[in-house]
Each structure stands twice: as C-alpha cells, then as structure tokens.
Amino acid sequence: MKKLFVAATITLLPFASAMADQDIGCGLGSQLFAGKEGKVVKVLGATTNGTSGNQTFGITFGTLGCDGTGTVTASTKVAQFIDGNMEQLARDVSRGEGEFLETLTEAWGINEQDKVAFNMLVQAKFSEVFTSENVTSQVVLENLNSIIASDSTLTSYTLS
C-alpha cells in the first residue's frame, strides 16, 4: 500500500503547479483537459474530478492544481453548488421554485422570510443570470450576486 501511495505521488507531482479550472475545480480531470474548450470537455473534466476521488488526494497533498490551504466561504459553497447543478438550477430559476433553487437559497444563507422575494427576483431576472447557453458557473454566480446587490430587500445577502 505504501509503495502504491509513493508511486501515485511521484506520478502526479508534475501536475502540482498547474492551475485548477475555474469551472470544474482541481483534480486529474482539470489536468487531462487543460486548454480545451466546450461543455463536453468541461463535463468530462468535472466528472473525472468528482468520481475518481482524485480531488481529495490533490487537496490533501497540494497536487493536481489543488490548494488545500483556503477557507471555505459562503461564496465558495454557493459557487460549488452552482457549478455542479447548472442545468437543474436554470430550470428551477426559470420556474421560480424547485429543489435546486431551494438548495441555492440555503447555501446562500437566505432567511426563510426572504426566500419568496429571492425566488421571484431571480425568476424575473433569469435572462440576466443565465446570459447564454454556454454561460459558466462563475458568471452565473457573479450575475446572481449583482442582481441581489441591486435589490433593496435582498442587498444584505450580497456575497463578498
């Protein structure tokens, strides 16, 4: 077991200095598909990162473009949720309700009394949130945050 661990570490060390993909995070998938574009490549990279357990390895040992020294913030939680659930979230936002929209409000820290206002606002601003078919999760997060910041009722929920 120890030999396997050492062999894996030596094999993966060349990837340690590479940067993680903003959309799919760090891990082997990010390294394998680095520099490539398109939804299919992003999905393959995210799937590889998420299903093979290599992100945990990368975060633990600082390899595969991962950095385990950061702090998990509210915006990090929200970004990760959006990244992993873009299609379902877009569907729920367009309807102004649903399980994924509810989970977003929880991750965002929206109080119960403000959830209806949040849901109505993001539904009304759907085209400003999901600006294109190929919009990235980071842009969706930025758009949501901007919309919330400009709403007098919800501005206190603006992520920093």
Description of the structure:
By secondary structure, the chain is mainly α. The protein has two domains: 2-61, no CATH class; 74-157, no CATH class. The protein is built from ten helices and no strands. It is globular, with a radius of gyration of 18 Å.
Fold topology:
Layout: H1 2-12, H2 28-32, H3 39-51, H4 54-61, H5 74-84, H6 86-95, H7 99-108, H8 115-124, H9 126-129, H10 137-149
Helix pairs in contact: 5-7, 5-10, 6-7, 6-8
State the gist of this model.
The chain is mainly alpha-helical. Helix content is 59%, strand content 0%.
Instruction: Let me know the largest β-sheet.
Output: none
Straight-line N-to-C gap: 43 Å
Helical residue percent band: 55-70%
As a whole number of angstroms, the C-alpha radius of gyration is 18 Å
The number of helical segments is 10
User: What structural class do the secondary elements suggest?
Assistant: mainly alpha
- Poorly predicted regions are 1-19
Following the backbone from N to C, one meets helices and strands in this order, namely: HHHHHHHHHH
Oligomer: single chain
Q: Whole-number average pLDDT?
A: 78
Q: In total, how many domains does the architecture comprise?
A: 2
Strand tally: 0
Shape: globular
Binned strand content: under 5%
Pfam families: DUF3015
Signal peptide: 1-20
InterPro entries: DUF3015
Organism: Pseudoalteromonas citrea
Structural key phrases:
globular; signal; DUF3015 domain-containing protein; 2 domains; mainly alpha; DUF3015
